[in-house]
Amino acid sequence: MGNDYISIMAQSLQKKLGVLDGIIEKNVEQRQILEQEELDADAFEQNIKLKSDLVDQIEFLDEGFEELYGRVKSLMETEKQQHKEEIQLMKQLIKEITEKSVTIQTQEARNRKLVEQRFSQERKKVRSMRNTSTVANQYYKNMSKLNVVDAQFMDKKK
């Protein structure tokens, strides 16, 4: 039973590595979306949703791993030699997970700055569009006043 738990824990760590690779991929996509000249809001929103689903998977895997570890912790400590290979494998997987986590943190920090810059640009565009719209409305109001021709000035000839 303990061996099964240890094996499942190692599989869980391997799945976590795969999910972390997925998050890294989504971060690269997100950066590409943010660096495009015209922001594709739908693609950005879809990217965030998919990445959120991956984060949920990480949480699920972590909870399962912790639960299993709680069950076999004492067994792993007392029978270190018997589980030497599995423990070594898990240590290696945890090292890789840590490295990928650092990569993700770096990507997230970079993308956060891009998001802030992009949203700032978009707000300026909206403000500019509002200003342009206000100026245009003012122009049309003024022009419509100029086009009002008093009936007394109209030529009555046909």
Binned, the helix content reads: over 70%
Q: How many beta-strand elements?
A: 0
Q: What's the SSE pattern?
A: HHH
Q: Sheet with the most strands?
A: none
Roughly what fraction of the amino acids lie in strands?
under 5%
SS content category: mainly alpha
Question: How widely separated are the two ends?
Answer: 105 Å
Could you list the spans in which at least 5 consecutive residues all have pLDDT below 50? Answer: 147-156
Q: Identify the overall geometry.
A: rod-shaped
Mean pLDDT: 84
Descriptive account of the structure:
The structure is a single chain. With 158 residues, the chain is mostly helical. The protein is built from 3 helices and no strands. It has helices spanning 2-35, 41-78, 84-146. Helix 1 runs antiparallel to helix 2 (41-78) and helix 1 runs parallel beside helix 3 (84-146). The longest helix has 63 residues, at 84-146. It is rod-shaped.
Task: Give a short synopsis of this structure.
This protein is mainly alpha-helical. Helices cover 85% and strands 0% of the residues.
Write the layout of secondary structure elements.
Layout: H1 2-35, H2 41-78, H3 84-146
Helix pairs in contact: 1-2, 1-3
Which characteristics define this entry?
single chain, 158 residues, mainly alpha, disordered C terminus
